[in-house]
Amino acid sequence: MKILLTNDDGIYAEGIYLLYEQLKKIGEVIVVAPDSERSAVGHGITLSRPIWYKNVKRKQKAFGYGISGTPADCVKFAIGVLLKVKPDVVVSGINLGPNDGCSVFYSGTVAGAREGALLGIPSIAISLDTFINPDYTFAAKFGAKITKHVYKNTLPKGTFLNVNVPNIKSLKIRGIKATRQCTVPIHGSFRKKKDPNLKDYYWMTGKVPTQKNNDKIDTYALGNNYVTITPIKSDSTDYDYLKEVESLRL
Amino acid sequence: MKILLTNDDGIYAEGIYLLYEQLKKIGEVIVVAPDSERSAVGHGITLSRPIWYKNVKRKQKAFGYGISGTPADCVKFAIGVLLKVKPDVVVSGINLGPNDGCSVFYSGTVAGAREGALLGIPSIAISLDTFINPDYTFAAKFGAKITKHVYKNTLPKGTFLNVNVPNIKSLKIRGIKATRQCTVPIHGSFRKKKDPNLKDYYWMTGKVPTQKNNDKIDTYALGNNYVTITPIKSDSTDYDYLKEVESLRL
Q1: Which of B47, B206, B237 minimises the CB distance to A181?
Q2: Rounded distance, CA B209 to CA B191, Å?
Q3: Is the Cβ pair B242, A146 closer than 8 Å?
C-alpha cells in the first residue's frame, strides 16, 4: 500500500510525525506537506506564484518533501510531479485542533483529504480535539487502523472520511460514532486592538457551537468523548433543490 | 433589501463594480471585499494574524470596505464588526474566470457565498467564463435579477446558488440551465523552470475537463453557452455512505 501523507500544520509538526511512524508499519509512506504551518487555508491552491519543494529530514533520516504551498497543492504536486504511481490512499493529519462541523471548509488538513477524493483516491483526514497539550498516541494508531480499512474496502468515488479524535487517554474514549457534519455556524468573534502606530486592528476567533447531547452529529459526539467518522462528499450539489431551480423562470 | 457584496478579485476589480451598479438599483449595497486579489484562496480564513480594513472610494465616491483578508473573512467581518443588521442576501462576484465543477472548492468567490450560507443568509456566487476580455454587462444584470428572486423566494437553509455566465453577447446566450456540479477532477499541470539563482521552481495550472454534450452538468452547459445555476449545499455529509460507516467494526 502506497500512502501519501500530508497536513496543514506543516512538515515539522508533531502530529504528522507520529502518524507517519504508525503508517510506516502498514505501507510505504510518502510525506508531502507544507514547509511551514498553513492552518485555516481551506481548499486554497497556489496559482499566482511559483511552488518550490525541498527534501526534509527528521531525526537525521529522510522524511519527506516540504512544499511552499497549501495542503491541496501538496496533493496535486505529489501526484503531478513527485510520484510515478498514484498513491492508494491519501491521509491528512494528525491536525492539532478539531475539524468538525463547518471547519471542514476552513481546514487545510481536511482540504488535503478532499483533494485526494477529487482526484479519485480514497482519502482520510484525522484531527485531534485540542489546541494545547496534545496526546497523539491513540489518534496515530487509530489513523493507521482506518487507513488499512479504507485500503481494503475502498470508499465511494469522491467521498472521504473526516475523523476527529478526543484528546483523552484511550481508555476514556467511549467508542466510535458514524456522524453527520454539524451545520451550526462558527460565527467570527473579533477582538479590536491598537497596533504600535495606534491603528485599529482586529483578531478573529470562532464562537464554537454549544454542546448538545446528540451523538449523531460530529461536533457533539466529539464533545461527548467519541471518535467521530464523518463521510464527506465532494459533489456538493443540492439535488433536492435542483428540481426547484429547474422550474425557475428568470 | 440589504445586500452584502464581496468577491475574490479584490475591491478594485471591474466585476464587483459593475455588479454593484446593478445591485444599487434594487437595494442597499454594502461592499466588503479583499483589499487586493485573493483568487483561489478557497474557504481560507485569517486566524493567525490581524485583520485591518480601510474605507475605499471608487470614481470619487464612497464605495466600500477593503479588508486585509479572504472573501470568507469579509463576510464574517462584515457581520461581526461592520454591520448592525444581518444582510438579507450575500452576493459574491462577478468573478473574472469560471467557477464550475471542482473550482467551487478552490474559488474564494464561491467561498464568500458559502460563508453567507453557513451563517444562514441566502447567498449567490457569480462568475464570468473568461480570463481575458471580460464583458460583464449581461452577468451584472442577471446578477441583480437573481438576487431579487432569491430575496423574494429565499433558499433552503445552508444552500447557495453558484452562477456561471458565458462571456458572449447576451443574444448568443442559449438560455439558463439548472445544473449539477461537475465532478471531473482538475488535475494540476506543473511547468518546471529555473529562477535567477538557477533553483528549480514549478508553476501550477489546471487541466480542465474535456467538453461534453451534457447540459445537466455545469462545466459542459457553460461550455455550450448556457448560464448555469448550480445549487450548492453546505452540509457535505455523504448520507448514503453514512449507513455503511455505522456498521464499521474497527
Answers
A1: B237
A2: 19
A3: no
